[in-house]
Specification:
The complex is a heterodimer of chains A (360) and B (314).
Chain A (H helix, E strand, L loop, with lengths): L3 E10 L2 E11 L4 E5 L6 H9 L6 E6 L2 E2 L10 E4 L11 H11 L4 H14 L15 H13 L5 E5 L7 H18 L3 E5 L2 H7 L2 E6 L2 E6 L1 H6 L4 H6 L6 E5 L9 E4 L2 E4 L12 E5 L4 E4 L4 E10 L3 E8 L2 E8 L9 E6 L4 E5 L13
Parallel strand pairs in A: 3-8, 3-9, 6-7, 7-8
Antiparallel strand pairs in A: 1-2, 1-4, 4-5, 9-10, 11-14, 12-13, 14-20, 15-19, 16-17, 16-19, 17-18
Helix pairs in contact in A: 2-3, 2-4
Chain B lengths: L11 H29 L3 H4 L13 H7 E5 L2 H6 L6 H8 L2 E6 L2 H32 L5 H10 L9 H11 L5 H26 L3 H8 L4 H12 L1 H17 L2 H6 L7 H4 L4 E2 L2 E2 L1 H27 L10
Antiparallel strand pairs in B: 1-2, 3-4
Helix pairs in contact in B: 1-15, 3-15, 6-9, 6-12, 7-9, 9-12, 10-11, 12-15
The chains are: A alpha+beta (360), B mainly alpha (314).
């Protein structure tokens, strides 16, 4: 098991830069998730760590060793593919022993290790089955098993749950988490699913356009996003933004939107320009009859215990997550106001969040 | 209305029609082949009798004549010989002849085997390597190279017979096994590359990547993971290559005489007394059919079985 460190890593395909000057440190035994929309460079980053792509520039450290230009076979890492890539011409046992055969283990050792891994993943009863007869979940377990038997320095997983149906995905999510707690291996996991990322990760790196925007623990990513993109990408639904056509000065603690005064956390940083954004999560908003932004109910979504109300205002659509007991009808006129002070101001020029009492 | 059957399923009438067409087609195709096999079991007289005999007394004379050289002897000489030691000697003596030695057929047949399987192996092996490279790597001028490879099949190979004849004589490759293997491989290679590239493109590259991460080099991954999955394509390609080099006649006539002559130019030259020995020719052709038939039957399961089915969820 090892720490993984990437330094100024860059990857270009012709004119297109897939990964821009990235720096990351993934700690030993950490479950680290690379999260972002498709095409953001997360898979390319993972494939460079694996050795399936060579970086255009920059370094990758696995433990103390610089491995950036080593072949995949020389790096001692395991990779779980989105489509599993189990060898279809071998049965489960042979799939699991395949990586060990190369390393020249004795037959009895291979057998022991394979059976140990199979037991851990509860696939010992299907060791002699053909791959084509397995269900999606079992294939997933075999793919994990093939990674596990090697006892590699790190596990890399490229959307391994992406092809499973929702029910299985939740189950495998739990199993993965438990497995990680059991064996405590450094794991880098790529996904575009923020719920998966939130539930699995010790730390998450959010990527967009080839850049790492923020790498932090899930609750920090959620509550204290560093950029507007992170704020909108994380959370379901994402954060609401209102355009504010005034500069923000240091120590400011209120803001005027459409003639309504809103309290904001005391600002510790001033904005670059006069166009900024006021960001608030749907659950920090509430409906009111007397104050706040005026609008009409545009959409209602029931989530069981909660309800999402979309309100159309002159600022665009605002999502409000409220208690199920709140009773409004479509097209009803309502007012929206913050229910607490968990408000973030984003600089209109850099898209970065401004430091305040709430987010430092 | 009958609702017991799905609209997508063919009706029993159309199934019967299809079966009938297939049977008629099979009979038409099989008539010449069965006539050939029948001829091989006739004796010299019944083979050329008119009207043709459909029912006849089977004889192994054709096969005996195929494998032996014989000479006609007088009755007195035959009487002076000790009694025949085996059935084929007896058969030959009844025609007032003695066996003077084995014929060249076995040698020609094994030449066909060596050249046929040798060039098939070489075509498939080289074709698989080239197809893999074209399928996976960024090869400069890839499309032009592929078109060039295909263009070698756009003229009939015999069009270049004269230059090849001269080249082979200068290089000392005329009438050699190696020369014929190289020639047939060259002709087959373009087909092999194109066919196999299609199959290689279908194999997801994740398999090799998985193998490389599991500690194998690219070449090892190719042999252990890619080739087994390309088996379907390899089997089909091998059958096509085998059929071509096994049946090839024109170059074999032109470039081989003794050492490396294959069976196709040899069989029609089997001459009996007073004309062609049709039962022997029939026997030679029947035996000549067998290897390709067996080869195809062995590889058939690979042609039909989609071994990669269900391994990747798409």
């Amino acid at each position: 098991m090892s720490q993984i460190k990437i330094v100024n890593l860059q990857k270009s395909f012709g004119d297109f830069t897939a990964v821009k000057n990235s720096n990351l440190t993934i700690n030993d035994k950490e479950f680290f998730v690379l999260l972002g929309p498709s095409g953001c460079g997360k898979t390319t980053t993972l494939r460079m760590i694996a050795g399936l792509e060579l970086p255009t520039s920059g370094e990758i450290y696995l433990g103390d060793e610089e491995v950036g230009m080593l072949r995949a076979s020389e790096r001692d890492i395991a990779f779980v593919f989105q489509l599993f890539a189990l060898y279809p011409h071998m049965n489960v046992r042979n799939n699991l022993s395949f990586p060990l055969k190369m390393q020249g283990y004795k037959k009895s050792d291979i057998k022991n290790r394979v059976e140990e891994a199979a037991k851990l993943l509860r696939i010992d009863h299907i060791l002699n089955s053909n791959i084509s007869s397995l269900s999606g979940g079992d294939r997933q377990r075999v793919a994990l098993g093939r990674a596990l038997v090697r006892r590699p320095k790190a596990f890399l997983m490229d959307e391994p749950l992406g092809t499973l149906d929702a029910e299985f995905r939740e189950l495998m999510c739990l199993e993965l988490k438990k497995l990680h707690l059991d064996i405590g291996a450094t794991t880098v996991y790529v996904t575009h699913d923020q719920l998966e990322a939130m539930s699995l990760a010790d730390r998450i790196a959010v990527m967009d356009g080839g850049e790492i925007l923020q790498a932090d623990e899930p609750n920090i990513i959620y509550n204290k996003p560093k950029t507007k993109f992170v704020a909108s990408f994380i959370g379901s639904p994402g954060m609401n933004f209102f355009e504010v056509n005034e500069g923000i000065s240091k120590d400011q603690s209120f803001i005027n939107i459409e003639g309504t005064k809103f309290d904001i956390p005391k600002q510790l940083e001033e904005s670059n320009g006069s166009k900024n954004f006021f960001g608030i999560r749907p659950e920090n908003l509430t409906l009111s009859n007397s104050e706040g932004l005026k609008g009409s109910v545009f959409g209602l979504e029931y989530l069981g215990s909660r309800k999402i109300i979309t309100v159309k205002t002159s600022f665009g659509e605002i999502k409000v997550k409220t208690d199920i007991s709140v009773n409004v009808k479509l097209n009803e006129n309502v007012q929206v106001k913050p229910s607490n002070n968990n408000i973030i101001i984003f600089d209109g020029e850099t898209d970065k969040s401004l430091n305040s009492e709430f987010i430092k | 209305m009958d609702t017991s059957r799905s609209y997508l399923e063919p009706s029993s009438f159309s199934k019967k029609m299809a079966a009938a067409i297939i049977i008629v087609y099979a009979v038409v195709t099989l008539i010449p082949i069965s006539w050939m096999v029948m001829t091989s079991f006739k004796n010299v007289d019944s083979a050329i009798s008119y009207p043709p005999e459909v029912l006849f007394e089977p004889s192994l004379e054709g096969y005996v004549n195929l494998f032996t050289n014989r000479s006609r002897q007088s009755q007195e000489y035959l009487d002076s010989l000790p009694p025949p030691e085996n059935w084929y000697e007896e058969l030959v003596r009844s025609r007032e002849m003695v066996i003077t030695g084995p014929s060249k057929f076995l040698g020609r047949y094994s030449n066909s085997m060596i050249i046929g399987f040798g060039s098939t192996f070489a075509s498939v092996f080289l074709g698989a390597l080239a197809a893999y490279a074209f399928s996976r790597f960024r090869v400069p001028l890839k499309d032009d190279l592929l078109f060039f490879i295909l263009s070698t099949r756009m003229f009939p190979p015999i069009a270049v017979a004269v230059p090849i004849f001269i080249m082979y004589r200068k290089l000392g490759l005329g009438d050699t096994h190696l020369g014929m293997i190289i020639l047939y491989t060259v002709v087959n290679l373009s087909l092999a590359v194109w066919l196999l590239k299609g199959f290689m493109d279908e194999i997801p590259k994740e398999y090799e990547e998985a193998a490389m991460i599991d500690g194998y080099s690219r070449l090892q991954a190719f042999f252990k993971v890619v080739l087994p999955q390309a088996m379907t394509g390899i089997a089909a390609t091998a059958i096509f290559c085998m059929i071509f080099s096994w049946n090839e006649y024109a170059f074999a006539v032109l470039l081989t005489q003794f050492n490396a002559q294959t069976a196709p130019p040899f069989i029609p030259t089997i001459i009996g007394e007073g004309g062609l020995d049709w039962p022997a020719i029939g026997a030679g052709t029947t035996l000549f059919l067998l290897p390709v038939m067996i080869f195809t039957i062995i590889l058939r399961k690979h042609l039909l079985r989609g071994i990669t089915f269900g391994a990747v969820r798409k």
